[in-house]
Amino acid sequence: MPPKTAPAATAAPVEAARVRLPIRSAALNDLLLWRNPIKSGVALLAVTAVYAFFKYSKLNLLVVFLYALISLVLGCFLWNSYADFSHKSPVPVPGFITAGVSEEQAKQVAERYTVVANRVLGFLKRVVVNHDIAATSQVVGALYTAARIAALVSPLTLAYILVVLAFVLPKAYEMRKPQVDAAVAKARAQATRIYDQYLRQYMSRVPRASNAEPIEILNEEIKKVE
Hints:
Protein name: Reticulon-like protein
Oligomer: single chain
Pfam family, one: Reticulon
Order of helices and strands: HHHHHHHHH
InterPro entries: Reticulon (IPR003388), Reticulon-like (IPR045064)
Membrane topology: Multi-pass membrane protein
Subcellular location: Endoplasmic reticulum membrane
């Protein structure tokens, strides 16, 4: 009778690689990636409840927002009035509201966004001044797509869909990162092959704006600022 062999050890499950979203807020990053499932679930449920309330109550979102601002202003006035009378603390507000913004802080914000603003303006220049057919086609296509989407769904529904996607897609990508990366690489290789085979000879004949600022230079400037 042959000796019994020990069963092979079961391989430990591979933990999904943790990803980091391109946002500055660590709390928002953890919320969208479901680091704390209870908090993320409550947040998504709250967003859903707000959407359902405005969707089926037929209330005007702008009117509700303006009335909420009125309530906030009156609440701050009453709070501060009571605080003066009872020697209590006034309404807690962020420091920049009471202290203002320093020149150094304003300079940092300006330096951070100047390159981005110039990049947008450079693209607009290609469209409205340099009659760049490629840039014009991109703008027309984007605006047409936005118009078609706006005709199908209301702004409130579109905003809710985007929020739900923000809660679903990052976590789904984190859970299936190897498969998604492989599929994206395959799709990119296929698109490159089709472009090289069929479109490159035609795109090379498309006139480009001669005095448009090169996108590579702007990208390098953005990297320096970041």
